[in-house]
C-alpha cells in the first residue's frame, strides 16, 4: 500500500511549478499581442506621413522608433511565450538575457536623462524654434504648436515676438506677408461669450508692448511654462519608468526560476 502511494507520487511529481509556467506564458502572450499593436500603430503613422519635416525636427522619426521597439518586443515576448509553453531552456535563456539587456539600457537612459535634465529646456527651445520656423510647412507641427500654446497658455518660446522666426509672421519692414507682425490664433486668450470667433485677434500683436498684448493674447513665453511643467512632472516620469521596469524584472525572475526548475526536472529524470 505504502509502496504504491510512493510510486504514484513519483509519477506525478514535477519540479516545474505549473503556476509559474502558465503565468509566464500568459504574461508574455499579453505583451506579445501588445507588441503587434505597437508595430501596427508605427506602420500606420509611417504610411500616413506625407512630409518629412517632423522627422527632421525629432532627429529620428517617432514612427520608426515605434516600429523598432515593437519588433524587438515581438521577438523577446515570443521567446518567453513559446519557451514557457514548450519548457524550452534555450528560448527561456534568450528571453531572460534580452530582457536583462533591455532593462539595463533603460536604466542607462534614465540615469543619463537625470544628469542631463537641466539641459532639457535648451533642447526643447531648439525644438520649438524649428516648430515655429516650419509652422506653415507641416500640418503636424502646426497642430502640435497650437496645442502647446493653448494647453500651456503661452505664446512663442521666450515671448510672442519669437513668431518673427517664421517667414509669414516675420515683423521686418517690407515683409509682403499679410500676416506680418501677427501671431497665430492659438496665442489668443478666449473671449467669454464671444459669438463670432475673431481669428485675426493676433494681427499686429508683435508691434505691441507687453501690457497691450496682454489684452488679446497670452503674453508669457512657453519656456517659463515648460520649466514649471517639467519640474512638476519629473515624479510622473519616474513612476512611469518604474512601471515599465516592474514587468521586466518580473519576467527576468520568473524565467530564471522556470529555467532552474526545468534543469532540476531534467537531472531528476537522468
Ligand atoms: C521678448 O524676448 C526677447 C528675447 O528674450 C527680448 O529681447 C524682448 O525684449 C522680449 N519682448 C517683450 C515684449 O517681452
Ligand atoms: C525676419 O526676416 C528678415 C529678412 O528676411 C531677417 O533678416 C530676420 O532675421 C528675420 N527675423 C527673425 C527674428 O528671424
Automatic annotation (TrEMBL):
According to its record, how does it sit in the membrane? Answer: Multi-pass membrane protein
Task: Tell me any Pfam family this protein matches.
Answer: Tetraspanin
What's one GO BP annotation on this UniProt entry?
pore complex assembly
**Annotated TM spans:** 20-44, 64-85, 97-116
Cellular compartments annotated: Cell junction, Adherens junction; Cell membrane; Cytoplasm; Membrane
* Gene Ontology cellular component annotations, sorted alphabetically: adherens junction; cytoplasm; plasma membrane; pore complex
Instruction: Check the record and name the InterPro entries matching this protein.
Output: Tetraspanin/Peripherin, Tetraspanin_animals, Tetraspanin_EC2_sf
Q: Does the keyword Cell cycle apply?
A: no
Q: What keyword terms does UniProt attach to this protein?
A: Cell junction, Cell membrane, Cytoplasm, Disulfide bond, Glycoprotein, Membrane, Transmembrane, Transmembrane helix
Disulfide-linked positions: 154-187, 155-171
Single GO MF descriptor: enzyme binding
Protein family (similarity comment): Belongs to the tetraspanin (TM4SF) family.
Designated name of the protein? Tetraspanin
Q: What is the lineage of its organism?
A: Eukaryota, Metazoa, Chordata, Craniata, Vertebrata
